[in-house]
């Protein structure tokens, strides 16, 4: 559950973006802007701050390595969440907005995104790079379609908190399908299966749309057996949250997880302006949706199923191995997902093994022939050995008799004793006559 970092947003419900504080580790600076009167009354999230360092999540995933190949251009990514507010880094990225949220109780703030979640998810997907801050989106060439399904606050009386009615989610998904979305991100979770939501998801999948959904967070003392939807539906990529230490976040739910991505203390866009730190599986889902935009832009011929399999096949290994409840296939890997050569389609099953029936008479005749072949081979080997023996006797026998059956090597020379004492000196030319 996310809490605010300043007095002005202390009462914001969980899942609202937090204003960043100065921390020595991250070097984040907080600048809180006083909200307008209407927003102050509703405790809406206000502008963020100037956060210069490159966030750890970007250092891990390095989406800019993919940009020479793909920036997500041509992709329309729907975000079914709390709306989307303007931010300088989202200039030109927010293509369309629609509201499906139930009416707020009391006075409405009128904010396009009071809670800020949708703005943050949109920033992780498509925020433009700047020379001032290190943060940018995964696919800055993509466009955002914002379907607002939560107003100033999450519906009261629903358990767990911060879940919405499945019909509301279905309305947002159906709108995204009608607006030609290529990717639909559902950061908002419901824990109720319903024909309306299931039908909306199936409609999106049948249109070759990739659907990415957060799995949500565990709440203290929540009832057991909760299943997050739409992440649990077949064909939907369910996403869990990864912490900076490389382990799954403590509160990330371990149901319906296909992939994990950074989702704890990540930086993203705030409503109106600035950046700030946020946490939750909804932001992890944004990193996966941004990766899908990169892949789909570079490989437009792939189906939504092929893209999902590509993400699973190229995911970085997780501590618990492939297929664990908490990590799924592993950590999303944007560069490998775009660049690797992965064979599309389903594996082809081998043809069934048909046992061969052999006629008994044929088997007996084959066995007799095998025995005959073995006898013939044995006789041939024996005959060859006999020829070699006879040849050796004929050729080497006379030579051995001449040598007395001695080998042809020269005898080893014997050592002879030599006197090591020096001999008397010899006068040279002593045999010549002397001159008188």
UniProtKB/TrEMBL annotation:
Name the keywords, alphabetized: Hydrolase, Membrane, Protease, Serine protease, Signal, Transmembrane, Transmembrane helix
Q: Per the record's keyword annotation, is Amino-acid biosynthesis included, yes or no?
A: no
* Coiled-coil intervals, chain numbering: none
Q: Where are the transmembrane segments?
A: 375-396
Biased composition of type Basic and acidic residues is found at 415-436
Tell me a Gene Ontology molecular-function term this record carries. serine-type endopeptidase activity
Q: Which Pfam family, giving just one, matches this sequence?
A: Peptidase_S8
Q: Where is this region: Disordered?
A: 407-436
Q: Does the keyword Cell membrane apply?
A: no
Superkingdom of origin? Bacteria
The Peptidase S8/S53 domain extends over: 72-330
Q: Which stretch is the leader sequence? A: 1-40
User: Tell me, which GO biological process terms does this entry list?
Assistant: proteolysis
The Swiss-Prot or TrEMBL record describes its family as follows: Belongs to the peptidase S8 family.
Its protein name is Subtilase family protein
